[in-house]
Write a structure and sequence with these properties.
The structure is a homodimer of 220-residue chains.
Chain A (H helix, E strand, L loop, with lengths): L4 E5 L4 H13 L4 E4 L7 H6 L8 E4 L2 E4 L1 H11 L11 H27 L2 H22 L12 H7 L5 H8 L3 H4 L1 H11 L2 H4 L5 H16 L3
Parallel strand pairs in A: 1-2
Antiparallel strand pairs in A: 1-3, 3-4
Chain lengths: 220, 220
């Protein structure tokens, strides 16, 4: 069977970045179809009627939605290539636990740094710093979260690397001073072509966030 | 290796119920260790330091946290027994998508029927009804969400069956009138011993919710 792989995509989305990295890691050729979220395509609405969000992976006409569901699908459907999830059930559970933690904490909390005000903004800043602390501790002295090689947890978290500068600037802390191991880990991941070609520039992300949320941020 | 399986448990928790059902489905003997959430045990704090929540499955001394991560672990660690997830990658992704949908929508939205007031309560009621509509449509005329037999999606959703009466009573709608297929599906699932012995009585859940949230609900 021919493998026709289409990704309903958006350059700056960390969730789409996860899928791009997984596809690159597996060496899968695909067509990126960039969506305009202010005018969603009929393909997007048909392929993801429940959430109407990107990313959607369309594999031989069949849609798969939600970034980490897609990553697991890619890992299982192209299982002859090296695996993103480890094979041992306990280590798999460990990887899924941390990917779930990143999903639940990083974006919802981080987004409040620019999309909310007052108390919620302040409490989100504290929560996000706490989240980075927990991740810095979990990483410890390992090269990657999964240990010796880039894997499932790394993929889940590195997708937010493009937002680290925005987080530290709007939150008024220094990633390199507070979380030096995570910064080193990020640089290590970026040496991989699958990662570097899938992520957006940190300053570009910051400029876009500023542009969209300028009134809320009180920045001229 | 001996299999020592301990579940840090709570009777009324739908998340703990998922784990109980999975353990029963696999025929795994385990010890239920009921937690008092107002006075968390040192075991819970040690085994789940990140979230400090139940359920936690402790398998030969090693903890696994987060209900659907635990269910997948059980499915993989006891893989010689019948599988909860299908084997085909696309069907696995489909199952994970719907379990994720249930996780993101059902409890956070449902809880607002008794734990919030005003606009948030009203919008949550609408969201929860929409969630049930989408699930009723996804079930369609199938016996189970996975098709012919009880599986991963069924397990993710049936754990909330104990809350259906509370939802419809506080939200002022009739499950049987609005979502007859889901009601029939629930009764079908309850015929399985793994399910019936793991779930709490619907009226008991309602009484507990009333007791805790009486002032907020404006009920004397």
């Amino acid at each position: 069977m021919a493998n026709e792989v289409v990704l309903l995509d958006l350059k700056l989305s960390p969730f789409a970045a996860r899928v791009r990295i997984a596809l690159e890691e597996k060496g899968i050729e695909y067509k990126s179809q960039v969506e305009d979220l202010s005018n969603k395509s009929s393909t997007l609405l048909k392929m993801n009627p429940v959430h109407q969000k990107i990313p959607v992976l369309i594999h031989n006409g069949r849609p798969i939605c939600e970034s980490m569901v897609i990553v697991q699908y890619i890992d299982e459907a192209w299982s002859h290539k090296h695996s993103l999830l480890p094979s041992d059930p306990y280590r798999r559970a460990h990887a899924r636990f941390w990917a779930d933690y990143i999903d639940k904490k990083m974006y919802p909390t981080g987004r409040n740094l620019w999309a909310s005000e007052g108390e919620l903004k302040e409490s989100s800043k504290k929560d996000l710093i706490q989240c980075f602390k927990i991740l810095e501790e979990e990483l410890g002295d390992k090269l990657y979260f999964g240990d010796e090689s880039f894997g499932y947890i790394d993929l889940a978290l590195i997708s937010f690397h493009s937002f680290f500068y925005t987080f530290e600037t709007l939150g008024n802390w220094s990633m390199v001073a507070e979380f030096p191991k995570l910064v080193e880990w990020g640089e290590r991941c970026l040496q991989k072509e699958s990662v570097s070609k899938s992520l957006s520039d940190q300053k570009e992300v910051y400029e876009v966030v500023l542009q969209i949320f300028k009134p809320k941020l009180g920045i001229e």
